[in-house]
Amino acid sequence: MRMMRLIAMREYAENVKTKGFWAGILLFPLILVGVFFFQTMLAESTPTRHYLLIDQSGQYGEAVDAAIRQEQQRRILQAFVDYVLANRIAANPEQTPARANAQIDQFIDDVGVDEVAGLDQWLESGGLDFALTLATPYLREGAPAFVPPREQFVLAALPEGIDAQGDPEQIIEQLRPWLTGERPLVVDGQGSNLFALILIPAQVNTAIVRPGATALAADSTNNGIQYWASNLTDTRLPNAIERSINSTIRNNEFITRGVDVQVVRNVQRTRMPLSRLDPRKAEGQEAVSVADTFRQWAPVGFVYLMFISLMQSVQYLLSNTIEEKSNRIIEVLLASVTPLELMMGKLFGIGLSGITTIFAWLLSFFLFIAFYPGTETELLSQFFSVLLSSDLIPYFIFYFLAGYALYAGIFLAIGSLCNTLKEAQSLMMPMMMILIVPLVTMTFIAQDPNGPVARIMSWIPLFTPFTMMNRAAADPPMIDVIGTTIVLLLSIALVLWLSGKIFRQGVLRTGQPPRIVEVLRMLGHKH
Amino acid sequence: MQEHVLELNGVSKHYGKFTAVDDISFAIPTGSIYGFLGPNGAGKTTTIRMILDILKPDKGSINILGESCALNVRHRIGYLPEEKGLYKKMRVWAIISYFATLKGMDKKTAKSRAFELLERYGLKDYAEARVESLSKGMGQKVQVLSAVAHRPELVILDEPFSGLDPVNQEVLEQLIQDMAQEGQTVIFSTHIMQHAERLCDRMLLIAKGQKIFDGTLADAHAIIPRRVTLECQGDISAVTKSADVLGAIERFPETHNRAAGSRHWELQIKEQADPQKILQCCFENNIALTRFDYTQPSLHDVFVHLVGSDAREHSLR
């Protein structure tokens, strides 16, 4: 016991001193900060995008304009809500940024093209200032002033020498240098790349597709609205324009068919709420809250944490064993301690450093949330508090330790058979593939936690820790919980016993890693 | 105190069809310096590993410090394996102290012991250095120290001299003698016969897994009869008839100047014979000597003689 402790302590102390360990610990918070920092920075620094609009039909320019206005209104309102949520005094867990944003989305989508101007007017005449005065009593002291976001899409003037009423194909040819970025637009004396060209041909109405009529695919694209842009990833603008123009066309249809547009609009805004209820909860509290949804998804977070930490630990265990073996330290050690003490000492020492890493991550997470308040981190902090307050912690501790013991045993045995990491790689390959399975099925199992796949996987010891962790929030049947635990514990005992055998014989081996037959012979060895 | 720290009885070890150690028996008296000699691949390391219970013998029994299994007395044994290795990132004093604590020493004693040893054997300035910054020879010295820091009753050193420069070899010889003086039993294996000759009370020679010789240095010397080399012209039969001479062989060394007509003889003489008498005998019989050599056979000669063609064949493989 004393020997084991000594070995474990040395492993731990040496491991903690390595650069890799600190890189592992620091990388996580760095990525966390980096992601949020970049997100905020990118959102603030997206350049103003200039577009050209050529409306030869004279019917839809207004709709395009409205679409762009609407996008801007959406951004202003969302920024405003985010601002209020970030600076309010008391947090209401039900009112999350995600939920508020969804409400704003709904609201903006309901606004008709002809109403955009109204909302704009409201914003311009100080509507937000009014809202701000209403919100001020609820905001914390010293909150920064609200700065509405800049306009993102700005209409630019057509470059000189281009006839807006000319042949569309000719216009495109003429504008090609600007579209490809060869020539910059000149806006207010400054150069700027052309982001997009929206070209509405004169005969655009012939391209309208109506039910029953066969769509003239080739023709309709030629005559329909053309959106030219070399940026293929930012689809907000084309989507908004398409939506807006379709809405205009439909309005026109209603009018030509003699339907009252106002009636249609009222019908469109009629809706029925759907409440999600959980039968397992106490009466009066059945409503599924955000926290409940989080709780359902929390196991996925745990599985992921388990996976990362396990990967790190077993890899270290492996390379450490190989180092000792190739350095011949193992022989000195074996003259002082039994192979079992050595193996268990390693297992504990490195397991401990794995746990340290997890704690360091959790701690940095806490600190991050505490010192980086904002709407984005708020969601995280809620997820986190659900994670920690839930009854899932004991499950996580148990399954983490069990999973670690199981995989560590296997990787130690592999390490003991190899002299170099290169040799170990081929032996590790199947194990890595097995370890990927829980990661791939993670979301799937969370959606159907008591389905056949989840149940079958729970009974396979190598997957048990991950799968049962994944199912922990869904009250799996008792037989699964107890049965798989027994199978898991028995497998751990078996794996440690067998890998103890391989370890004992493997560590003194030199030369090539053994073939399967030799490994089997080792397992059968009596000593 | 037992008479023997270590006893092996009919110990054998096979790796598949290959016999690494074949029915070896020997006993090592307490407090002696015991040399473990043999050509490469003779089975020295395997024997040592079996003594330490790192490997299990297929046959035979081992008694070490009164126990049948080294594991029970492992705190009383110090071991330096043939292939040296240390944790590269650890500090020199820490590694010595770590191995001592693994042998049951408490941490504080182990630390002061580490510094004491480093000072005594000239590594004081490197105590805080990391192992990876040491030269190979220094690293090896550190490893020897870490093997003996816990004052074991029995010290087993596998090839402790390989890779050391002459100065450090002397330091190591000193260390071995220091330990013997404190009553510790030291077993070491080596190829270098001079070390064995200088240090060992007794020695064991094995080849191809079998014991070839076990005894004191004097016993070893007695194996090869003492020799006198003569170079002269004419007949030497008068000398060979002398009672002290066991036999005479004529040699033809390449350096020998045959043109002058002189011949080169090697006489084997009795254990107790006095070479002076043979010289006298030569004068009395008017043999014109151009050379008279009396040499005590070295351990090296004994080694080559005993291992013979096998060793040479082996080393050419």
Quick tags:
heterodimer; A: 527 residues; mainly alpha; 4-stranded mixed beta sheet; two-stranded antiparallel sheet; 6 strands; 67% helix; B: 317 residues; alpha/beta; Rossmann fold; Alpha-Beta Plaits; 2 domains; 6-stranded mixed beta sheet; 4-stranded antiparallel beta sheet; 10 helices; 34% helix; elongated
Domains of chain B, number: 2
The low-confidence runs of chain A, each spanning 5 or more residues with pLDDT under 50, are none
Largest sheet of chain A: 4 strands, mixed
What is the second-level CATH architecture of the largest domain in chain B? 3-Layer(aba) Sandwich
Q: Label the overall shape of chain A.
A: elongated
Question: What is the strand arrangement across the widest sheet of chain B?
Answer: 5-6-7-3-8-9
CATH fold topology of the largest domain in chain B: Rossmann fold
Structural class of chain B: alpha/beta
CATH superfamily of the largest domain in chain B: P-loop containing nucleotide triphosphate hydrolases
- Secondary-structure element string of chain B: EEEHEEHHHEHEHEEHEHEEHEH
Oligomer: heterodimer
Distance between the termini of chain A: 21 Å
End-to-end C-alpha gap of chain B: 45 Å
Radius of gyration of chain B: 24 Å
- Total beta strands of chain B: 13
Number of strands of chain A: 6
Helix-strand string of chain A: HHEHHHHEHEEEHEHHHHHHHHHHHH
